[in-house]
Amino acid sequence: MMIHAVLHFCLLAKLCVSFDSARFLQSRKSPSCTTTLSSSVSSFEKTGITRELQWDPVPTPIPLRKELDLLESGVLMQRGEFCMLHGDRLQEVEDECLKLGMTLPQGLLIRRQLMVSKVVRSSWMLKDRSKLGDIRRKFQDEGWSLLELSEDIDQPPVSILRAIIAERVFRAYPDMRIGDQKRIVRSIISEKDPDKIGKFLTDRELSELQTAKEFDVVGFQISTATPVLWEEALYTYLNEQKINYVSEETLRDAEISFTPDCLILDDCYINGQLIRWMDVKSFYGSGLRENKHFTNSLKKQIGRYETEFGESGAVVFKHGFSSKLQSKFPSTLFLDAGPLVDDMKFKGEDNL
């Protein structure tokens, strides 16, 4: 019993000191834990230090009416269009954004969210055996290109080929675990396995895949460093303000169930509102009903954080947010880029 007690004490002690960096240990005052949550969360004790920050400039949310006007203008999306915009199409969106007092990145990010929402709503097409059979026949037997099919059914071209490849892999390996089948499909789409590409794609189909990737930012997304850089910008700001916090990585190491980008250990007030956690988003927070897929995801995330940590927090959107979010989530503080960009702490660019 004594050994178990000692081991338990050592584990808690390790969690208590495994904060984001030695900076916290150097600046920490006598802590007093004021929360009674899960054992993992409560091991990150509050410092009892009160801090007040002013997030300048004070965020100005975009009125929902402006988002609706941009949507109703019809410039954001066209049938079968899932690519980045260039030339006249890009100028068309920029002109409409300027007319409404919005930025081009805001318009492009709303467009991206609308595309994702559209695909989520209509993804059944690529799961329905009869519909997929018709698509496969047009692609394999009638020589339709993926871009032609994309315009025909209004689905991302890479997603179309992914569904066709998934069907082929299932037929070739019916007894294989689904997870392993999906890994094969991913290796083909990413062109990382020449043997599997040769087994499941013709030369024409490989060429179609490569072309489709150039015209698809929804069905095929290239990972960027933007989210990581954005998190680092937040940490830099908090360090400069001498705020005691725990990073997402440390929270994960402590096996916390739901992890925001940081857990604030001080009694920190931002623009007069007490916050316990912060999460950063490298996009625009849309309030459109058509983007409810995004809003529902945000609702679940905020709910989990508030349940996990017992208090409300702040969400930082790099490109601003809709007034609808403020009314929908009154307990959450919404912020824009503010000092993170003004102080040149963040220099990444979004792949819009």
Description:
It is found in: Cytoplasm; Nucleus. One of its GO terms (cellular component) is cytoplasm. By secondary structure, this protein is α/β, with parallel strands linked by helices. It has a domain at 16-56 and 224-342. The chain has helices spanning 2-17, 22-27, 39-42, 64-72, 87-100, 104-122, 129-140, 146-153, 157-172, 178-189, 194-200, 203-214, 226-240, 248-253, 292-309, 323-328, 339-342; strands at residues 50-53, 245-247, 262-270, 273-281, 314-317, 333-335. Strands 1, 2, 3, 4, 5 and 6 form a six-stranded mixed beta sheet that branches. Helix 8 (146-153) packs across helix 9 (157-172) and helix 9 packs across helix 10 (178-189). The chain is globular, with a radius of gyration of 24 Å. The model is unreliable at 1-37 and 343-351 (pLDDT under 50).
Structural class: alpha/beta
Q: What is the residue-averaged pLDDT?
A: 87
Largest sheet: 6 strands, mixed
SSE topology string: HHHEHHHHHHHHHHEHEEHEHEH
Q: Would you count the extended β strands for me?
A: 6
Instruction: Supply the number of helical segments.
Output: 17
Bin the helical content.
40-55%
Choose one word for the global shape. Answer: globular
Per DSSP, what share of the residues sits in E-state strands of 2 or more residues? 5-15%
Which segments are poorly predicted (pLDDT under 50) over 5 or more consecutive residues? Answer: 1-37, 343-351
Spatial gap, N to C terminus = 58 Å
Mind telling me the C-alpha Rg?
24 Å
Main location: cytoplasm
Pfam family, one: TPD
Organism: Cylindrotheca closterium
Keywords: Cytoplasm, Nucleus, Signal
